[in-house]
Amino acid sequence: MSTTKKIRSALISVYYKDNLEKIVQQLNQLGVTIYSTGGTQKFIESQGAEVSSVESLTSYPSILGGRVKTLHPKVFGGILTRRDNENDASQIKEYAIPEIDLVIVDLYPFEETVSSGADESDIIEKIDIGGISLIRAAAKNFKDVLVVASREQYTGLSDLLEKGSGATTIEQRREFAREAFNISSHYDSQIFGYFDQDQASSLKVSVRGSKKLRYGENPHQEGFFYGDFEKMFDQLWGKEISYNNLLDIDAAVGLINDFTATTFGILKHNNACGIASRENLTDAWKDALAGDPVSAFGGILVTNQVIDAATAEEMNKIFFEVSIAPGYDKDALEILKSKKNRIILVLKDGTLQRRNIRTVLNGFIGQDRDDKTEVPEELKVVTKEQPSEAQVADLLFANKLVKHTKSNAIVLVKNQQLVASGVGQTSRVDALEQAIAKATHFKFDLKGAVMASDAFFPFPDCVEIAYKAGITAVIQPGGSVRDQDSVDYCDQHGMSMVTTGFRHFKH
């Protein structure tokens, strides 16, 4: 039996009518028998096409306020009948069930209704029953039936009808079935997520569509992005974004989201190598760059302010991969576009996923995103020496940074500027010594600087090293059985220390 099938009959029942006109006209010109329901039937009639109601086929009206329209053997029998099965052919003949070769259906906008903040009764009514059943039935029987499960496929269907004169191949039907199951499984995942809420009883992550990247973390690895990048960003210039770019961009957005003052940050391998808050954006850029002008080479730049021409001129003096900002002055954009591969992004929506999910072993682990940002009222002064107002500001600045720095992490800050950080070390002492060495290399005076630690100090060695380097104030979570040892050292040397009660490991 030929795998090419001619479309002779179609069932159309859609929520969205836009862009359906051409399909209806093509089917009408091809002499296809069309069955439809309710508003869709009226729309098809308005296009001058012949259409039969599903009610005339089933001899049952739409009931229960439209909840039951197409759920009937004369509909599903016509879709699911196997054309090469003699028993199926005998039964549909016995019960006068017409074969249905094409199903065009979409689903009630459940996801959009939830996002709109509608009440539960409205949300429940947007759980599609008939549509999802029609999609699954038609997709299951793709050997004989073509299923179109979204208006996004109308262009493809129109091309297919035109080129094939109403005939479809098994390969085409299978491809449409694949997308139909993609749509239906995503729909069910969203419904489950609504009911499951924060119970996290099962992991169902569904993102329709993917983008193949040039490669993964390394050239020998394949890479893919599942998400809607264009929802968050407008790319104004530059080359295709890579896997590593995406990781850095995610880290940059997470970091800048924690700052309200005019701030400029520079990241490398997901960690800040320079960041500063200033009244003037150009000053913020210069002081961020001063934190580590070497690591800034090839970095990711991020700010929470529109970039002006003066700042762009300074940025343009170094090589960087990506610039992220809420906007760019016209002259600034022209300056930054002087390098053809430089990626220039406008951040439209900085909302990140509420949960982090990673693969481990033969499964996954998930956690809430660390969105805790400490405020002055939460700080507990544990030393005799009280930190000054300026020190508190620097301590909170440093604590924001250490939250976004790979553990074990130590961050040194002075005057709202990252002086240096110790990143991803196996001991806290190593992280501190790395930070001090880096600050010394770049000629920073650590006298009066503050130190932040992502976790508690098990011994007083870190505060001793910090004091000898000139550091005068410390912020840390606290919680060690030997906290008092570090507090005592600070008291003996006139240092102030505050605890937050919140650890900020990042692995």
Structure description:
The chain has 507 residues and is α/β, with parallel strands linked by helices. It is built from 19 helices and 23 strands. The strands form six sheets. Strands 10-15-14-13-11-12 form a six-stranded mixed sheet, sandwiched between helices. A six-stranded mixed sheet has the order 18-23-22-21-19-20, sandwiched between helices. A hairpin with a 2-residue loop joins strand 16 and strand 17. Helix 13 packs parallel to helix 14, helix 14 packs parallel to helix 15 and helix 17 packs parallel to helix 18. The longest helix has 27 residues. The radius of gyration is 31 Å and the shape is elongated. It starts with a strand and ends in an 8-residue tail after the last strand.
What's the topology here?
Layout: E1 5-6, E2 9-13, H1 21-29, E3 33-36, H2 38-46, E4 52-53, H3 54-58, H4 73-80, H5 86-94, E5 102-105, H6 110-115, H7 120-125, H8 130-140, E6 146-148, H9 154-164, E7 167-168, H10 170-196, E8 211-212, E9 224-225, H11 229-232, E10 233-237, H12 243-256, E11 263-268, E12 271-277, H13 281-290, E13 299-303, H14 309-315, E14 320-325, H15 330-336, E15 343-347, E16 355-360, E17 363-368, E18 380-381, H16 389-403, E19 410-413, E20 418-422, H17 428-441, E21 450-453, H18 461-469, E22 473-476, H19 483-492, E23 496-499
Parallel strand pairs: 2-3, 2-5, 3-4, 5-6, 13-14, 14-15, 21-22, 22-23
Antiparallel strand pairs: 1-7, 8-9, 10-15, 11-12, 11-13, 16-17, 18-23, 19-20, 19-21
Helix pairs in contact: 1-9, 8-10, 13-14, 14-15, 17-18
